[in-house]
Design a protein that fits this description.
alpha+beta, Aminopeptidase, Endonuclease, Chain A, 2 domains, 4-stranded antiparallel beta sheet, 15 strands, elongated
Length: 314
């Protein structure tokens, strides 16, 4: 499965109503969730998930009484973290509103999704002939702190990048905020980006900051790096235990169209087309970071140490 780029935004129930209706109509077939169930849309908080090209691919809403309704993702985008990202946004809105008692009536087949987010089955409200399971969540007014290195006080907001300068600044933030690990998937180390002095200095500071720090780099085309005199290769040559390079060997991986960098503090930068600098990034987007990290690990396990760098013992 090729990873896709998307972002979550807050939606206006009037201005975005047509897009919300289209998603619901596509997902809730068979009359299970008629629009009559959403008569109070204007009173609710809504989120929309959008693909890179702007297409609305998912929606959900939070009612004033703390009920979450209509969490829906169109078929091609399921199982890519979109639902979790939208749910996290709705939970953040609930915290902002001071709502602490949340509830959802989930189809039995989807109950596990909400339970993974902390919802508990409310069997007192369960009816014998019901095809849905009532679930509740006691929400803290502030998100719980985890020992994962997540940056305190940050949310899963994403930002668009359009230029090389914006991409470089975002990369700097991702590298500087890394705690112990960085993962980078790139076609050829992109000298115009990762060869910049400030970025090389950030990589050096990361590599020398702690003896356990490690940067894993997947190079789609390592041959293209030969003879460049790339500063990152020279840095890796001096610090071979801090940088590990691998090269994909499967055709699907070798033709991977995107590029990204992610750290172990939930930060990421993703570009759908690795020949362009347009993309999105965030200092702290746990669901998206986890998705990218898992995709990186899958490709990493199928890749081999790059023959182009064996002389460097990488």
């Amino acid at each position: 499965m090729k990873i896709q780029n998307y972002h979550i935004e807050y939606a206006d129930p009037v201005r975005h109503l047509a897009e919300i209706h289209l998603i619901r109509a596509a997902v809730f077939t068979g009359g299970g969730n008629p629009e009559a169930n959403y008569a109070n849309d204007a009173d609710c908080r809504h989120v929309l998930a959008r693909a890179e090209q702007g297409e609305a691919i998912g929606t959900g809403r939070l009612a004033p009484d703390g009920s979450i309704h209509g969490l829906a993702i169109i078929e091609p985008w399921r199982n890519q973290g979109v639902g979790s990202a939208m749910l996290n946004s709705l939970l953040n809105q609930a915290r902002t509103l001071g709502l602490t008692d949340l509830k959802v009536n989930a189809p039995v087949t989807s109950a596990g999704f909400f339970q993974k987010a902390g919802f508990m089955a409310d069997y007192d409200r369960l009816t014998g002939d019901s095809l849905s399971l009532p679930l509740t969540l006691k929400l803290l007014t502030k998100p719980p702190r985890h020992n994962t290195g997540t940056i305190p006080g940050k949310t899963a907001e994403t930002n668009a990048i359009e230029t090389l300068a914006q991409t470089a600044e975002a990369c700097l933030q991702i590298i500087r905020q890394a705690r112990r690990k960085l993962v980078l998937l790139t076609p050829d180390l992109e000298a115009g980006l990762y060869g910049q002095k400030a970025i090389l200095e950030a990589f050096k500071a990361f590599a020398t900051g702690n003896r356990d720090n490690l940067a894993q780099i997947i190079l789609l085309n390592p041959v293209a790096v030969n003879g460049q005199g790339h500063g990152l290769v020279e840095l890796a040559q001096k610090l071979p235990s801090k940088f590990i390079f691998r090269q994909p060997v499967e055709v699907e991986d070798m033709q991977y169209p995107s590029a990204f960098i992610a750290n172990d503090r939930d930060g990421y930068l993703f570009r759908l087309d690795n020949n362009r600098y347009q993309g999105r990034w965030s200092q702290c987007a746990p669901a998206r970071n986890r998705q990218l990290s898992e995709e990186f690990d899958r490709i990493w396990q199928r890749s081999l140490p790059s023959g182009e760098f064996r002389v460097l013992s990488l």
